[in-house]
């Protein structure tokens, strides 16, 4: 089943809830498009986390779940997911996120160990819960950093906030 990973871990490292004034369908469309676009970007390490390690760059790679595996979220896979969402919005959307680190020295990129995260978005009327599990890797970027980056990028797509920060 597209969008759902049967073996999603029970152990969760972070869960955050966001309020959302848009429909579930619209939120899933924006989320899909945002994650697809993030696949094409190279980010400075400081853009994701509060660390002051300036010689690192980061590339994120998202894959959408399909029963027992993940498919890289390129344009073709994003369109396939969007077709599914347009027919009937999903209650749950699961993604794999590989965080690829590179050290840049004198214009050379040296690959470092990667982090692998699994994300589960659970949708309900006017809210979404994001659960994240750190599969493996050095954890240079925390689960909170991944959630914050996604929320920030989703909110940049509109003049009004699509994901509203949880109340403290």
Summarize, please.
The chain is α+β, with helices and mostly antiparallel strands and about 170 residues long.
Give a written overview of the molecule.
The chain has 168 residues and is α+β, with helices and mostly antiparallel strands. It has one domain (14-155). It has helices at 24-38, 75-87, 143-155, and strands at 14-19, 42-44, 56-66, 69-72, 92-105, 108-111, 115-124, 127-136. Strands 1, 2, 3, 4, 5, 6, 7 and 8 form an eight-stranded antiparallel sheet that branches. A hairpin with a 2-residue loop joins strand 5 (92-105) and strand 6 (108-111). The N and C termini lie far apart (36 Å).
Give the number of DSSP strands: 8
State the end-to-end CA separation.
Answer: 36 Å
How does the major sheet shape up? 8 strands, antiparallel
Counting H and I runs of at least 4 residues, what is the number of helices? 3
Query: How does the helix and strand content classify structurally?
Result: alpha+beta
- Please indicate the percent range of residues in DSSP E strands (runs of 2 or more): 35-45%
Instruction: Give the SSE order as H and E letters.
Output: EHEEEHEEEEH
Q: What is the residue-averaged pLDDT?
A: 91
Helix content: 10-25%
Query: How many domains, in number, for the residues?
Result: 1
Q: If you compute it from the alpha carbons, what radius of gyration comes out, rounded to the nearest whole angstrom?
A: 16 Å
Q: What global shape is seen? A: globular
Q: Pick out the low-confidence regions.
A: none
